[in-house]
């Protein structure tokens, strides 16, 4: 039984939304969805839907906040008031402040900021619908938006959250599993480089469970990475075709 | 909005080579070995007017935690439980880098790391704090005050929080005729701490892992990992910090070292305040 006494996984190992323990939700991705932004992406993991946009590199004001040797990143993770079961006030919460920070630090590991000294690269993330795993979906989306903006990176970033419900590790947890479960462990990495850029754990795990959860997340991240690359390739293939027609 | 810090001192970056060449021979700038922690000093009940408190030094880092227990209303989804509120203030007297004003992202992050570790392990018995379930409960305000920043604020805050909560007395609140809780003389007992939880931070500098990083080491580190543990070795929270990345093997090694460090913290805490061993 979970915290709420709710049964989140049945005797056959099937979860409340019908998934197996190591199964991702259906993932959809699209890039270049916003006209004004240099780059943008819309990413869904099941019902969790996140829109990310990149503005820049551009001049930062006030200028004293810039750095002489590289670009700064400014990141805002924000949840739309209608994204949650009960309306969320649009004012930033402590949670959103913390998540903006961990997402910024993750993205900073991937962007070649030294190519754009004295500028800012602004990344705005709006969670349109929240159903668990919003920070990892946000990182996947933000990284795609950066790629869409043509900003050089060491690798794309993909993320996923592993949870523990009714004593069992489950991949890509939804909101019910997050709030009723014993642990939520978001992980994001640069899959091709094998570098982990985000790792948090909210809840309790034994050492063995933790190692197993890492393995599960890394395997899933590699699957998400393939979808990211395919989405970007499809977009550029389409652009080339359009150019030929002209 | 989270912005890449532009106020960090540049000097430690220049010193990175020196720090790295020392690490190569198993030493650190302050003479410690890689897995050594600085001297820990704990003074429980430092603030008489608080319901629980602790002043903690780790080397030159100083953190003061004060606890106040006050009436409040419960969360609608947990009507029969009291509330633990963890807040952190990086006051400007603690560092030339701290500015007056509302808490910044680092203060929120620190508070939330400590908060999560105590919340998720159900370290304190919140049910005991429900005076009138669904209506009136007691709120445990755990305020972390950083007094001198010399690195590793998270571990110092975790130690101070554990000691302060372990030493917290519950004031005597009684319901008056109008249905308000009024504070009476004396205390009706101590806060029940069912589990001890601690957080230990390890920094990765180059290919080396160092325990209890100083401020300078934090600036030159690639990334830091804070890991919370209960005494039986269960991992009760984790946070990677810093704009760098870690490999899977790094994380294993860092969790191992964090566990070793947490043992040292637990023993310092026990000797300092004579906490009875866990049943």
UniProtKB/TrEMBL annotation, chain A:
Gene: rrp41
Pfam family, one: RNase_PH_C
Compartment list: Cytoplasm
CC annotations in GO: cytoplasmic exosome (RNase complex)
Keywords from the named record: Cytoplasm, Exonuclease, Exosome, Hydrolase, Nuclease
A single GO molecular function term of this UniProt record: RNA binding
Family the entry assigns: Belongs to the RNase PH family. Rrp41 subfamily.
Exoribonuclease phosphorolytic domain residues: 23-152, 155-219
Protein's name according to its UniProt entry: Exosome complex component Rrp41
Subunit record text: Component of the archaeal exosome complex. Forms a hexameric ring-like arrangement composed of 3 Rrp41-Rrp42 heterodimers. The hexameric ring associates with a trimer of Rrp4 and/or Csl4 subunits.
SUPFAM superfamilies from the UniProt entry: Ribonuclease PH domain 2-like, Ribosomal protein S5 domain 2-like
GO BP terms: gene expression; nuclear-transcribed mRNA catabolic process; rRNA catabolic process
Principal location listed in the UniProt entry: cytoplasm
């Amino acid at each position: 039984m979970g915290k709420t006494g709710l049964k989140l996984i049945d005797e056959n190992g099937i979860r409340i939304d019908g998934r197996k323990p190591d199964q991702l939700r259906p993932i959809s991705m699209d890039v270049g969805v916003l006209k004004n932004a240099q780059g943008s992406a819309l990413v869904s993991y099941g019902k969790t839907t996140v829109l990310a946009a990149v503005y820049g590199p551009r001049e930062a004001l006030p200028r004293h906040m810039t750095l002489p040797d590289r670009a700064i990143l400014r990141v805002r993770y924000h949840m739309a008031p209608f994204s949650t079961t009960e309306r969320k006030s649009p004012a930033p919460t402590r949670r959103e402040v913390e998540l903006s920070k961990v997402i910024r630090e993750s993205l900073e590991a991937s962007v070649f900021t030294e190519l754009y000294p004295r500028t800012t690269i602004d990344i705005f993330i709006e969670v349109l619908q929240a159903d668990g795993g919003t920070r990892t979906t946000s990182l996947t989306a933000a990284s795609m938006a950066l790629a869409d903006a043509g900003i050089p990176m060491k690798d794309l970033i993909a993320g996923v959250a592993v949870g523990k419900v009714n004593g069992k590790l489950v991949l890509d947890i939804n909101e019910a599993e997050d709030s009723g479960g014993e642990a939520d462990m978001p992980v994001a990495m640069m899959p091709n480089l094998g570098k982990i850029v985000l790792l948090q754990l909210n809840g309790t795990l034994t050492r063995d469970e933790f190692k197993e959860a890492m393995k599960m997340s890394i395997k899933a991240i590699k699957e998400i990475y393939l979808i990211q690359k395919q989405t970007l390739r499809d977009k550029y293939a389409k652009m080339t075709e359009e150019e030929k027609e002209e | 909005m989270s912005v890449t810090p532009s106020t960090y001192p540049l000097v430690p970056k220049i010193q990175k080579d020196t720090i790295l060449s020392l690490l190569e021979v198993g030493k650190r700038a302050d003479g410690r070995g890689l897995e050594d922690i600085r001297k820990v000093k704990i003074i429980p009940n430092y603030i008489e007017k608080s319901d629980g408190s602790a002043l903690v030094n780790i080397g030159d880092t100083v953190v003061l935690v004060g606890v106040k227990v006050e009436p409040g209303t419960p969360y609608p989804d947990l009507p029969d439980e009291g509330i633990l509120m963890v807040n952190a203030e990086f006051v400007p007297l603690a560092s030339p880098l701290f500015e007056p004003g509302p808490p910044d992202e680092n203060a929120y992050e620190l508070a939330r790391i400590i908060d999560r570790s105590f919340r998720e392990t159900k370290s304190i018995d919140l049910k005991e704090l429900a005076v009138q379930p669904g209506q009136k409960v007691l709120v445990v305000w755990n305020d972390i005050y950083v007094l001198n920043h010399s690195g590793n604020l998270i571990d110092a805050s975790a130690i101070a929080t554990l000691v302060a909560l372990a030493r917290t007395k519950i004031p005597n609140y009684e319901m008056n005729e109008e249905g308000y809780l009024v504070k009476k003389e004396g205390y009706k007992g101590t806060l029940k701490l069912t589990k001890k939880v601690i957080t230990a931070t390890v920094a990765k500098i180059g290919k080396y892992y160092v325990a209890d990083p100083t401020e300078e080491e934090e600036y030159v580190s690639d990334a830091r990992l804070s890991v919370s543990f209960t005494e039986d070795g269960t991992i009760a929270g984790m946070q990677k910090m810093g704009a760098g990345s870690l490999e899977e093997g790094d994380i294993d090694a860092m969790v191992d070292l964090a566990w070793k460090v947490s043992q040292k913290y637990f023993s310092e805490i026990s000797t300092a305040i004579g906490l009875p061993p866990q049943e």
